[in-house]
Design goal:
By secondary structure, this protein is of the alpha/beta class. The protein contains twelve helices and ten strands.
Length: 316
């Protein structure tokens, strides 16, 4: 990334009191795996940010919740999508992270995420415990969804060795469910998940209710909650189903210039209808909701925007 010199930053601050910096920069944004919502959402943010910040060039890269936080910490990216539960683990240095992460700051909470465990309707699988010895497909290692799959099995006394695991893309997971190689598909994403809709067009599916798992999951990470997938979200699934929930948010390098992050945060708040066209889960997003305390200190630039909006937050 081309960093501002101290003189340039001072000159900018003295010259004009405007919301957007007037210098060029290259920013790498880590998004998500193919088939998920983070890639199109990242593309929309790239367009909005580049229009709002003269000279800014955002390079969107594929990623995953855990990998993105590591990427920001290690200087491989300046911004990334993250999941609240795994980012909290990163700051504390808990597994799957091998050290406390010091250069990861929060920008904004965006929307709730839903860990969904989908099984074939004809499988006679009614609980996680029923999956012993069965084929399960989930996201690649380094994805938050994969970590939740592992922890969910753990809560029910199972390990990957007790099942037949496959770590692949959403597209490949759908294919494995269609051809019978897998009987269950675990993924963490927004609702409705495009991959689950694709699967439901080829096979009857059902979502497992995970409400009985929340106590054990909270012992592993207190950030887990129960969220509800409304009935009719997926074909032939007419009843509300409770699943494991957490929050998607944006993280940034704490060293990213304050004025750049301030403008990025403001642009999100000003363009919610545009972002909702990509992900309906962002409907009703406000500065107060963006500033939700999820245990991750905010970047000073984001905090400045929230303060102007009447919300005080903790910074790094």
């Amino acid at each position: 990334m081309k960093r501002h010199t101290t003189a340039a930053v001072l000159a900018l601050g003295i010259a004009v009191a405007i919301a957007t910096p007037a210098s060029s920069a290259d920013v790498r944004l880590m998004t998500g795996p193919q088939g998920g919502v983070w890639i199109p959402l990242g593309g929309q943010l790239k367009d909005l940010w580049e229009k709002a910040i003269p000279g800014l060039n955002v390079q969107a890269l594929p990623g995953a919740g855990i990998a993105n936080v590591r990427g920001v910490e290690e200087g491989k990216a300046e911004i990334g999508f993250g999941n609240s539960i795994s980012t909290v683990d990163a700051l504390a240095g808990r597994e799957p992270f091998n050290k406390p992460h010091k250069n990861v700051c929060n920008i904004a909470t965006l929307y709730p995420q839903y860990y969904q465990l989908v099984v074939r309707a004809d499988s006679n699988i009614n609980s996680v415990a029923d999956l012993k010895g069965k084929g399960i497909t989930t996201q690649q290692r380094g994805n938050t969804g994969e970590l939740i799959t592992k922890q969910l099995l753990q809560v029910h006394g199972l390990t990957y060795n007790d099942v037949k695991m496959s770590f692949v893309s959403y597209t490949d997971s759908v294919a494995q469910m269609q051809d019978g190689h897998a009987i269950a598909f675990g993924l963490g994403t927004a609702i409705p998940a495009g991959s689950v809709l694709d699967l439901a067009t080829a096979r009857d599916i059902k979502l497992l209710d995970l409400s009985s798992s929340i106590g054990g999951m909270k012992k592993l990470n207190p950030g887990y909650t129960l969220v509800t997938v409304p009935g009719k979200t997926y074909p032939k699934n007419d009843k509300d189903v409770q699943v494991i929930g957490y929050a998607t948010h944006l993280v940034a390098s704490c060293n990213l210039p304050e004025d750049v992050v301030y403008t990025m945060t403001k642009v999100i708040a000003q363009n919610v209808p545009t972002l909702v066209s990509v992900n309906k889960g962002m409907a009703g997003l406000t500065p107060a909701k963006m500033a939700e305390d999820i245990g991750i200190p905010f970047h000073k630039g984001a905090a400045r925007f929230y303060k102007e909006s009447g919300v005080n937050v903790a910074t790094n």
